[in-house]
Amino acid sequence: MIDAVNKVIQDLNEETIGVDIAYLPGGFSTIANMFKKMAKKKTKWGIEVLDDEKSYSFKVEDQVKFTVQKPHVHSFRQESGINDFGMKELDLAEYVSEAKEADVGGLLNEIEEALFSLLAKPPILTIDEDTAAWQSVFPGPTMTVKKATLNEGSVEEDMENILSLIDVSMHEDIGNLQLLQSALKSQKSLAKFDVFSNYEYLFTSVVKSNHKGTSLIFEGLVDLSFNMTEKIYCTNSDVLDAIEDISLVKVKKNVIYPVGKRFPYNFLRSIKNAIEEQ
User: Fold this and answer.
1) Quick one: 10 and 123 in the same domain?
2) 169 and 46 belong to one structural domain
3) Residue 112 and residue 79 in one domain
4) What is the pTM of this model?
5) Within this chain, do residues 255 and 125 fall inside the same structural domain, yes or no?
6) Residues 197, 111: one domain?
7) Domain count across the chain
8) Cβ(113)–Cβ(248) under 8 Å?
9) How far apart are CA 166 and CA 238, in angstroms?
10) Which residues pair with residue 58 across a beta bridge?
């Protein structure tokens, strides 16, 4: 039990700004920030107010002390709302919600950073690279998938939508926000979070192309468990027959699948050649 108490005191010392703070007019925010951190530990603290000739010293359970020079007392009372200098207890209940808001804001910022960082990491980066390779051989517009959190052609807009949804639906649940942040950073399944319940995919890139009368669709998907898949849809049965024996791919009906997770760039050239030889 003693060790646990000492740990709380140690943590508080590490988190507070300092053990001795001199108040200056307009500078109560420093003390207020300290109060927010203290309010996370508990809302009521013992306090002793020492009155000497030139100042008041506020000692909070021997953890922190802030000093107010007497010429600054009026300003301090206005900023802090502390008027009773004979008090024996400091109630920080009003700072609990402020501390929570600060925590939520910080978590939302970290979640936004984690989401954007996914764009520069596999598997989303892999799909993005393969989309660029596809469009260099078979130009065409991207298509929107309604069940996708993020679409290749509208990433910025989709990112704003999901971040807004996270803020609205999870704002009061710090624990769940922390779990989401951890899942994004470690690329663990997002399916367990209600905010993603209407989505089937985290990221999609679907490109519709046409080369010499042959319709093609490249589809790159990343599901909510960060698994990636790629497919190519082709309407030309002669082209499908021509590439069916290529060891790099598998053909089922009008769909081409890579043997691995992604299509090699040289295979795209093989499709183009097969079309042009018809």
Assistant:
1) no
2) no
3) no
4) 0.69
5) yes
6) yes
7) 2
8) no
9) 48
10) 49, 66
